[in-house]
Amino acid sequence: MENYIQQAKPEEKDIFQKYVDKCKLFYGLTLCWITITAVAIIFGPLLLPQPFPIEVQYPFYVGQQPLKTIIYLHHTMAVYQSYVQVCSNVFVAVLLWFVAARFEILSHKFRKIRNFSEFKNCIQLHQRLLRYANDVVMTIRYIALSSIGFSTVAVIFSGLTFLSRQPLTIKAQFLTVAASSLIEVFVCAWPADYVLSTSNNVGHAVYESLWYKKEVSLQKNLLYITLRCQQPVSVTVPCMLPTLSLNYYASYLSTTFSYLTTFRVIFAVEDGLEI
């Protein structure tokens, strides 16, 4: 990725810069939000009137020093490791955005085809890019799957804490955890959706080129490229993760909030029975 950017032409760098301008604000705010969440969880027991450890049962007494400090440092390290893992999803997003930008660059090159040598060069670029995109997808798809799984667990349990009878300070902590988990899935879903569209747009770029003015052999070859682009590059895990996209993220949100609504009804029924 670094070598390609260093060797890129000015018009290619303009496309990369366009993607940077599109994403820098969102990902900057995302990293800040995740950092605030980690800090709130780490320093919450020190600054808020809440018991420590929070809702954690140990088979031994932890209210004396230095054992209490040791356990607190252990919890801090666990939160820090989770924070680093969540932030690593931004690198996954960077790889996907880079692939999307390269597909867009290739689309511009296809639209400018004038002779057979340029067409041959674009075909080679397309094949290499498809192999690279496949390598990226094979590398990150299980990371995306694990992120979605852990985010789902975090959102559900944070929602249970938020819906239960807990102090407002604790609810605020878990609300930031739930929001960070939802953002974590969106961090990967947004660029994955762009990869879907830009890899498919290569076929449209081929059709929008001056293919009708070229020889028949070139037209046939362009047809093969168009057919290949009908299967866009997607982040998916067979039988476990459907195509990761904004549509999937919308269904993910809908399912998650449906679970939380069900839990809210259950809590309301239990409160009614207690009354």
Explain this structure.
The structure is a single chain. This protein is an all-alpha fold. The chain is built from 7 helices and no strands.
Give the termini separation: 63 Å
Number of strands: 0
H/E series: HHHHHHH
- Sheet with the most strands, sense and barrel status: none
Tally of individual helices? 7
**What is the helix fraction of residues, given as a range?**
over 70%
Rough outline = elongated
Number of domains: 1
- pLDDT averaged residue by residue: 80
User: What structural class is derived from the secondary structure elements?
Assistant: mainly alpha
Beta-strand residue fraction = under 5%
Draw up the topology in text.
Elements: H1 2-7, H2 10-47, H3 67-111, H4 116-163, H5 168-208, H6 216-228, H7 246-274
Helix pairs in contact: 2-3, 2-5, 3-4, 3-5, 4-5, 4-7, 5-6, 5-7
Q: Which tags fit this structure?
A:
0% strand, 275 residues, 80% helix, 7 helices, mainly alpha
In short:
The protein has about 280 residues and is mainly alpha-helical. The chain is built from seven helices and no strands. It is elongated, with a radius of gyration of 25 Å.
